[in-house]
Amino acid sequence: MLDLSTMPVVDNHCHPVLTNQRMDVLQLRRHFTEANAASLAERHVPNTVYYLWMIRQMASFYNCACNEDAVIAARSSVSANGLLERLVGEAAIDTLVLDAAYPAPEECYTPEHMSAVAGCRTVKLLRLETLMQRLVVAYDDFDEVIARFTEHVSTLREKGYCAFKSIVAYRTGLDVAEWSKDEAALSFAEARAEAVRKGQLRIAHKPLIDYLLHITFASAAEQQVAVQFHTGYGDGSVNMLLGNPLQLRAVLERHDYRTMPIVLLHESYPYTQLGAYLATIYPHVYFDLSYTIPFVDKLEMLAFTRQALSVAPASKLMYSSDGIYVPEMHWAAALRGRQVIGQVLQEMIDADEMDQEQAYYLAHLVLHDTAYSVYKL
Ligand SMILES: [Zn+2]
User: Fold this and answer.
1) How far away, in angstroms, is 82 Cα from ligand 1 center?
2) Domains of the chain, earliest start first
3) What digits encode the pLDDT tens for the residues 281-323?
């Protein structure tokens, strides 16, 4: 098999880990499901193939018995810093591209702290819907929100971010439409009323989100910075029909947005072939191959990696973990991603599709170089 075990990786989409790494079995399980219903963690996560594999990997890393209690006890004997340093160190990660707005920053390592402890570079994404929510809670005037939002997104790099990230797929869907300012203002009034009533806001107001996204797209195109979109699997509240990357067509077709690289996250699972197709056709569309979340087993990882590499140029593909909460996720994805990509490329060598030198070159694009170029690292 093609050995990629020493090739450094850029994890182009992941999250900070919790500063408190002490947890019980149920809390650990909760980190390994995207389902909202509690019964999934309680009764079904331990019967999920990905989780069974993960417990075995952790047991072998911590050199303990292969069960949840032993793993919890072993990792609890190491400090949070120690876990981060050992796991990320072993994973040979070059750069973590972090969405530091989720989980709640007060519970997590900052990107700077994470970099210092883990011994790798970290860069940041600006999560758009979190910014929108914060502004709607803070200001009661729509023009003021627009002005502050525009100022924020138009100075992205100055503010220390390398790209935008949108979770619109989980809120109102990827079919981002064009609305008049009056329609957006009505939607803002509803969102603002909710923010005042509850003291916080979970933004899910379509004309408002879409309107602010179009401001972002124009600015991203002008600055030539990338926008990541969550697509497919990744949040229990998504309407999967609206998480289909084909829903982005109106945005993809806008010629004035073509200088904005668009990254479809989570291999658009289960729409992998559709997402990879878009990366094959549209010059500015890139495709993320994520090896922790979605929580699928190795056979499915081989399948989505084959589907992507079979059609899309490797210079359009990028590795990630979507690791979050615990550093084992970032670590496991790096080990597994290299293994799976290595195995698929070896199959392609065996099928006489390429030689070994070409396979190493393509692997380097997926694991490292494509991300360097898309995010100008
Ligand atoms: Zn994410």
Assistant:
1) 24
2) 9-21+79-176+212-374 (3.20.20.140), 23-78 (no CATH)
3) 999 999 999 999 999 999 999 999 999 999 999 999 999 999 9
- The secondary structure element, H or E, covering residue 62 is helix 49-62
| Mean pLDDT to the nearest integer, 193-197 | 96
The 8-class DSSP code of residue 368 comes to I
Above 90 in pLDDT, residue 234?
A: no
pTM equals 0.97
Peptide bond into 103 cis (omega under 30): yes
3-state secondary structure of 97: strand
Query: What is residue 235's predicted lDDT score, i.e. its pLDDT?
Result: 77
Whole-number Å distance, alpha carbon 9 to ligand 1 midpoint, is 17
CB within 8 Å of 32: residues ≥ 6 apart: 41, 45, 48, 50, 51, 54, 295
Tell me the CA–centroid distance for residue 103 and ligand 1, in Å: 10
